[in-house]
Design a protein that fits this description.
The chain is mainly beta. The protein is built from five helices and 35 strands. Strands 13, 15, 16, 18, 19, 21, 24 and 25 form an eight-stranded mixed sheet that branches. A six-stranded mixed sheet has the order 2-11-10-5-6-7, with helices on one face. Strand 26 and strand 27 form a beta hairpin. The protein binds 2-acetamido-2-deoxy-beta-D-glucopyranose (5 copies). One 2-acetamido-2-deoxy-beta-D-glucopyranose binds next to loops.
Length: 522
Amino acid sequence: MDMKLFSVMCCLVFFGTTVFGATTSREVRSKTLDEDEDTYGELKDTDIQKDDYYDGDEDVEEEAPEEDNNVDLRITSQPQTIVKKLGDNVRLPCLVSPEKADPIRVWRKDTEVLYQGSVPVSGSRNMKIDNGFLHIQLRDVGDFGEYNCTLILNEHDNPFVVHKVLQQEEPRIISLTVDNEQSVLDIGDTLTLNCNATGAPRPRISWHKNNERLGTEGETFIIQSVKVKHAGSYRCLADNKIGKPAHDHIDIFINHKPIVNVEKYIVNSDHKSNVELVCHVSAYPPPAVLWQKNGMNLEQNEPKIKFANERNNQRNILLISDLQEEDFGDYTCLAQNNFGRSTQNVTVVKTPVVRHFQKPHNETKDAVLMWKVDSKQPISMHELQYRKKGEPNWKTVTPDVTNATEGDTYTIKYVLTGLDPGLYEARVRSQNIHGWSNYSPPLPFEGVLAKHTAHQKSKYHKKDQKGKDQKDMSLDTPAQHRSEESSLGASTHSGSVRRSPLSMQIFAVGAILFSLLVHVRQ
Ligand SMILES: *[C@@H]1O[C@H](CO)[C@@H](O)[C@H](O)[C@H]1NC(C)=O
Ligand SMILES: *[C@@H]1O[C@H](CO)[C@@H](O)[C@H](O)[C@H]1NC(C)=O
Ligand SMILES: *[C@@H]1O[C@H](CO)[C@@H](O)[C@H](O)[C@H]1NC(C)=O
Ligand SMILES: *[C@@H]1O[C@H](CO)[C@@H](O)[C@H](O)[C@H]1NC(C)=O
Ligand SMILES: *[C@@H]1O[C@H](CO)[C@@H](O)[C@H](O)[C@H]1NC(C)=O
C-alpha cells in the first residue's frame, strides 16, 4: 500500500465521521435485514490469501489511528465463497482476535469503500454493519462480487479478509473432449475424456456410458488400456442442484476386426414359407457385410431375397420368401474390414428346432424341465431322454404334444419325479412331418434337490468341475459351490445337527473373547 491510498483512507475516515454525524437519520441503519445463516453452496476457496499481512518497508510518519500497536490483532474469519440468488441475504464475517478489541474495519466492494467502521461511505440501503458482520440483501447483480474487510491498524499492518459472493448459476458444459481429438482408438490405447463445466456452486460431474452410470466422478475420465467393449457413447453430466443438470456426449470407436454372432444357428421353416436370418456384427471401421449360400454371394432380389439392417448396421437381416427345396441348407454371414474378416453359419431346416432348454429353476424335490420347439409343421412327437451322469443308457419319455403357444413355437414342460439323488443330464428332440430335429446339447441337472442332500451336493459338484459341459446350462457354478462349502451358513437349512468343526472353532474363539471382555470390564 502506498502513501496516497493511506492518506485517502484517513480523509475518508474524517469525512465519513463528519457527514454521518450530520445525517444520523439515514435509512441505512434502520433497515433490518434477516439474519441469514444459510450456507448452502459455500465452497472453500483456497486461492484467497488468508493471513496476508501488509509488510511494506517504506517509512511513513505516524498518522495512523491511535491503536495499541503491541496488541497482536488479527482477523479470525476465514475467506468464504458464498453462492446465493437474488433476494437472498448474506452475512459476511470479519471477526477479530482478541475479541474485545474493536478496531476500525473498512469494508469494500471491489474497489469502492462501503463502510469505515460503522460509518456508511457508499454503503447503500440494502446493507448493514453489526458486530463485525456485514449484512447484505442481494437486490441486484451488482451486489455479487468480492467484499474486502481490512483492519486499519497502522500503515504497516492492515490485515484483511476477502469474501466472494457469487450468483447461483445453472450448470453448463463448456466442452467435452477426448485427448488428442482421437475418438477412434486402437485396442490397448488410453482413453482420456475431459468435461469442462461451469456453474455456481461448481457442478459435480458424473460419467455415463450408453445410459449406464460409470463409477467415476470429476472432470477427467480415463481408461488405461481400451478393449473392444469400451467403444460406445460416453456422456458427462454436470449437476449443481440449480436448475436442470447439463449433459453432453461423445462417441468413441475402437478399431477391431468384425465380431459376428447369429441370433439362431438353426432356423425352422417350410416350403412356401418365409424365413428371417439375423446376424449381429460389431466392427470398426464399419465392415462390409455379406450373405453367402454355398460359397456364393447372395444378391438382393426382391421379393425373393431382401437385405435389411437395423441399429446402425449392427443387426443384419436376410429375408428369404417363398422357400423352395434348394433354399434350405447353410447360409453364411460374413463381415470384413481392414482388420480382418469373420463368419458364422445359419442353417435353414424343415424339421423342428429345439430352443431354450432350461435348467430346472425351483429347488424342489422334482426336476422341472422346460424347453421350446419351433416348427412350422405340427409336432407329432416330443422326446426327452435322461440318464445319471456316467451311465451308458438313456431313459426315454415322451411328453404330451400340445398346441403351439405363440405362432410356430411349442412350450414343453416335463416333471421328472422320484429321481435318486445325483447328477443327471437330459436331452430333447421333436418330430414333425419332415422328420426328427437334432438332439439338443445335453443339459446337466441335479436329481432330488431336497434340502437334506446339501452335503452330497458339494461332492457331486467337485466331480462335475472336471466334466466338459459346464456351459450356461449347468446348475451352479463351481465358484458358488466353493463358497457354499466354506461358509458356515450353508448347513443351516439342515438345522444345527451338522455343525462343522470350523464353526466349533469360531464358537470357541468367541467364548474366549467374551470372557476376556468380561474380565477387562471388572
Ligand atoms: C483488501 O484491501 C486491502 C486494503 O486496501 C488491500 O491491501 C488488499 O490487497 C485487498 N485484498 C484483496 C484480495 O483485494
Ligand atoms: C474450461 O473452459 C473455460 C472457459 O472456456 C476455460 O477458461 C478453462 O480453461 C477450461 N478449463 C479446462 C480445464 O479446460
Ligand atoms: C459354414 O458353411 C460352409 C458352407 O456350407 C461350410 O463350408 C463351413 O465349414 C461352415 N462353417 C462352419 C463354421 O460351420
Ligand atoms: C417355484 O416354487 C414356488 C413355490 O413352490 C412357486 O410358487 C413358483 O411358481 C415356482 N416357480 C417356478 C418357475 O416353477
Ligand atoms: C389345438 O388346436 C385345435 C385346433 O385349433 C383344437 O381343436 C384343439 O382343441 C387344441 N388343443 C388343445 C389341447 O388346446
